[in-house]
Amino acid sequence: MKQLPLFPSHDPVHVKSYLGKYIRKDVTVVITDNSTVMLSIKNKKDHLYLRLHRMFLSASPDVLDELAGYIRNSRMKTPLTRDFINRNIHNLKKRPPRKIRLIHKGKKFNLLDIFNKVNSEYFDGTISSSITWSIRSPKRSVAKRTLGSYSKDTDLIRINPILDSAGIPGYFLEYVVYHEMLHADLNNEPATGRRTIHSPEFKRREKLFHHYGRAMIWEKKRWR
Question: Quick one: 46 and 137 in the same domain?
Answer without folding.
Answer: no
